[in-house]
Amino acid sequence: MHKVVREGLERIERELSEYHEAFESRKVLVAGGAGFIGTWVCRTLLRLGAEVVCVDNFASSLPENVEELLSQQGFTLLKKDVSKPLAAEEVGRVNIVLHLASRAAPPEFDSFPVETLLANTVGTANLLELSRACDATFLFASSSEVYGDPPPNYVPTPEIYTGNVNPVGPRSCYEEAKRCGEAFAKAYEKQYGLDVRIVRIFNTYGPYMRAEGIYGRVVSRFITQALANQPITIYGDGSQSRSFTYVTDLVNGLLRATCCDKARGEVINIGSEREIKIIELAHLIKKLTRSSSEFKFEQPPPDDPRRRCPDISKAKKLLNWTPKVGLEEGLTYTIEWFRDKMS
Ligand code: UDP
């Protein structure tokens, strides 16, 4: 295991020290467990003494992300698409269901809009049915994309902002699907009294993130371009902004939302309060990698949100959570991981 991953897992474990009992000897189904965030979640849960059932169809995730977990006690892998029904008999009685199974990169929405919609709508319904059959706690990994492109007076964006989404736009298969997934979770709570929790995840980065082809996101693309001294591709003029959370902070927030009593039935933003323009991110990554890359300005993707930054007062209050890893620090870890992977 890479040093950066080991240290990251140790950090999460320390931060969750008061919640160990919530996961110890619990059986947790992690849908999308072989993905970027999923693999961190599976690894953390195993360290906390949970039994983990990873369900993944490897549509956008990688078998190698869970390969070293296969020999670990308490870990099982089920290769399956969540948009197909999942019976309790297939996985056994689970206590907690975490739905992290979705494509997440904008170019994937373009190539696989149907699968993206199905995973977050039908997939959510299927996992809610399983949760109901097992009387399990259900957590839906929603997204800042439910807000679409919020106006400036709603940035930082609080959970009460209801969104500005084009239902037939190029990102709608993801945005509307996440909104529908949230509606499904709330419907199961209302009609069946299920214990559901929703987290809206803002841009997250770190080791295990993919960089290649349609799977690449801005941080992984910029880092791999910079390390190869290739041009750094900035879409538009780079004045659009995002807020980036290091993956260990995200996992800490997500698992707190899963087990804190106060999070039951709630919708909670998990993200960083530090908003940064994409051009500034490019400069920062160039500096941290000591790269000689040039900047290449390209056509921006359609409907690219201008700004994205969460209001995290609710996470602070209900989960006693704040992100701890600063952007320079998290980027340094991520660069170290990519540097070793590329060498
Ligand atoms: N972006 C960029 N160059 C790239 C990839 C992305 O300038 O090579 C921009 C993209 O247009 C967006 C931001 O970086 O404004 C974040 O993109 P990402 O794909 O990571 O996720 P998003 O936040 O759009 O879902």
Can you give keywords for this protein?
seven-stranded parallel β-sheet; Rossmann fold; 13 strands; 343 residues
CATH superfamily: NAD(P)-binding Rossmann-like Domain
- Rg, alpha carbons: 19 Å
Query: Which structural class is indicated by helix and strand composition?
Result: alpha/beta
Strand order of the largest sheet: 3-2-1-4-5-6-11
Q: Main sheet, how many strands, which sense, barrel? A: 7 strands, parallel
Total domain modules: 1
Commentary on this structure:
The relative contact order is 0.14. The longest helix has 21 residues, at 172-192. The model has no long low-confidence stretch (mean pLDDT 97). The radius of gyration is 19 Å and the shape is globular. The chain has one domain (3-203, 247-273, 309-325): 3-Layer(aba) Sandwich (Rossmann fold), CATH 3.40.50.720. Helices cover 42% and strands 16% of the residues. It contains 14 helices and 13 strands. It has helices spanning 3-15, 20-23, 36-47, 64-67, 88-91, 106-111, 113-120, 122-134, 172-192, 218-227, 247-259, 278-289, 313-319, 327-342, and strands at 27-31, 51-56, 75-79, 96-99, 137-143, 196-201, 204-205, 232-235, 241-243, 245-246, 267-270, 275-277, 295-298. The two termini are 16 Å apart. It has 343 residues and is of the alpha/beta class. Strand 5 (137-143), helix 9 and strand 6 form a beta-alpha-beta unit. The strands form four sheets. Strands 3-2-1-4-5-6-11 form a seven-stranded parallel β-sheet, sandwiched between helices. The protein has a two-stranded parallel ribbon with strand order 7-10. It has a two-stranded parallel ribbon with strand order 8-13. Helix 8 runs parallel beside helix 9 and helix 10 (218-227) packs across helix 14 (327-342). The chain binds uridine-5'-diphosphate.
